[in-house]
Amino acid sequence: MEFNKDLGIQQVAFTEKTNYKNFPMVPRVIFGKGSFDQLGDILLPKRKHSDAPFIFLVDDVFEGKELANRIPLLFNDQIIFISADEEPKTSQVDALVEMIRKEYSELPSGIVGIGGGTLMDLAKAVSILLTNRGGSSEYQGWDLVNKPSVYHVGIPTISGTGAEVSRTTVLLGPEKKLGINSDFTTFDQVVLDPDLTQGVSKEQWFYTGMDCFIHCIESLDGTYLNAFSQSYGEKALELCKEVYLGDISEEESREKLMMASWHGGMSIAYSQVGVAHAMSYGLGYVLGVRHGIGNCLVFQHLQEFYPEGVALFKEMQNKHGIIMPKGICSNLSDEQFDIMVSVSLAMGPLWENALGTSWREIITAEKLQAIYRKI
Ligand code: NAD
Ligand code: ZN
User: Fold this and answer.
1) Helix and strand totals (H; E) in the chain
2) Which of 59, 93, 323, 371 has the greatest number of C-beta atoms within 10 Å?
3) Are residues 188 and 151 in the same domain?
4) Is the beta carbon of 61 within 6 A of some atom in ligand 1?
C-alpha cells in the first residue's frame, strides 16, 4: 500500500516535470577571414580511405569562380553544382542520394555544403539519407531519423538563416513543407569565413539578413523566451542593428552579420519563431515565395504584434532603399487564401510562442486573410 502510494506520488512528480530540450550544438567551428583555406586540413583526418570521397554540394553561383578552384579535392572527390533558385525538395535529395550510391561502392567520407540555407539544408539532408533507408519525405517531422548521418560540413556563403547551427533541414515534400528535425541533422563542422559572402546582391543580403533580425524579434518577444534564448537573441539583435543601421566598414559588417546569424539560430533553437514565420510558411507553400523575402513581406504588416520590431525593420529598409514587391496576393482565389491560412494556422508552436496558449482566440482565419490581402 505504502509502496504503491509512494510510486503514485513519484509518477505525478515525473509527469509534471518540464521536459527540457537536450539540444545538439555544432561540435566544431572555425571562424575568420580566409579560414576556408584550412578546409583541406580539416577534412584530411575525416577521410576514411581513398575510395571514400568527399562530395561537395556547391551553389552554382560559384561555378567557374575562384572559390570553386579553392575546394580541396583529393582522390575521387566530386563537386556537384546545384542551383539555389528553388528551395530544396525531398525529390531532389532522393535523386542526389541515389546518384551518389550508384557512383560509389563506398559511403562517402563526408558531405560538404557550400552556399546559403538552400545548399546547407541539402547537404544535411543528403548526409542523413545516405545512412537511413527510404525516401527523405519519410523523415520530415521530429526525431524520425534512427541512424547517425554521414560526417557533414556546412559552409555559409550568405548570412542570416542560422541553418549553419540548427538541428533541422527544411524540405518541400509531396505533401508538406517541413524540416527533418533530428539530433543527426546538425553539422559536425562549420566553416565561417566572412569573405565568402562578398558577392551577395544587396536585395538578397537584406532579405536573408532580415531572416536573422526576425528570428531575434520573434524569439525575444515570444512567450517561450528563457535566459538561454535571450542571451543569444539580444546579442544577435545588437549585431543586426550595427550591420543595418550603424556606420561600419563592409568587412566588419560581413563578420558581424555572420555572427548575428549564428546567435539568432541559437536563440530560436531554444525558443521558437513567431507570427512572421507562421505566415511566411503559408506564402511559401501556396506561391513558392522564398523564406527570406516571404518573412519580410509579412513582417512589414505586423505592427500589431511587434510594434518596435516593425518600426526598426522599416528604418533598415529605408536606409538601404529596399523596395519590396507589392500585390503578391492580389489575384488569389478564395481557395488559395484558405490553403494559405490553414498552412499557417497549422504551425501551432509558433503561434503559441507568439501569442500564448490561448492564441486561437486572438488569431482567426479572417484576421490572417486580412493581413495576407495587404501583401
Ligand atoms: P539561398 O541559399 O536560398 O540563396 C539565396 C540566393 O543567394 C541564391 O540566388 C544564391 O545563389 C545566392 N547566393 C548565396 N551566396 C552567394 C554569394 N556569396 N554570392 C552571390 N550569390 C550568393 O539563401 P538563404 O536565404 O540563405 O536560404 C534560404 C533557404 O534556407 C530556404 O530554403 C529556407 O527554407 C532555408 N532555411 C533553413 C533554416 C534551417 O534552420 N535549416 C532556417 C532558415 C531558412
Ligand atoms: Zn527564418
Assistant:
1) 15, 9
2) 93
3) yes
4) yes
Q: What angle do CA 50, 52, 58 make, to 5 degrees?
A: 110
Q: Examine the domain organization and report whether 176 and 210 are in the same domain.
A: no
What is the C-alpha separation between 221 and 214, in angstroms, rounded? 10
123 Cβ inside 6 Å of ligand 1: no
**Cβ contact 215:168 at 8 Å:** no
d(CA 204, CA 157) in angstroms, rounded, equals: 12
pLDDT band for position 144 (cuts 50, 70, 90) = very high
Q: Residue 174 has what pLDDT?
A: 85
Within this chain, do residues 186 and 244 fall inside the same structural domain, yes or no?
Answer: no
**246/274 same-domain check:** yes
Which runs of E-coded beta strand occur in the chain? 28-31, 54-59, 78-82, 110-115, 141-142, 152-156, 170-172, 177-181, 189-192
Output the residue whose Cα is nearest ligand 1's atom 1.
116
* Cα–Cα distance measured from residue 257 to residue 159, given in angstroms and rounded to the nearest whole number: 6
d(CA 126, CA 96): 7
Does any ligand 1 atom lie closer than 6 A to the CB of residue 161? yes
Question: pLDDT tens, 18-77?
Answer: 788 899 999 999 999 999 999 999 999 999 999 999 999 999 999 999 999 999 999 999
The Cα–Cα gap between 262 and 272 comes to 15
Mutate to test the pocket of ligand 1, among 128, 165, 170 (most ligand atoms within 8 A of CB): 170
Same domain, 135 and 189: yes
The reply to whether 107 falls in a domain is yes
Q: With a 6 A CB cut-off, is 118 part of the ligand 1 pocket?
A: yes
Last residue of a domain, one of 139, 166, 197: 197
Nearest ligand by distance to the CA of 156:
1
Over residues 272-305, the pLDDT tens digits come to 999 999 999 999 989 999 999 999 999 999 999 9
pTM over 0.85: yes
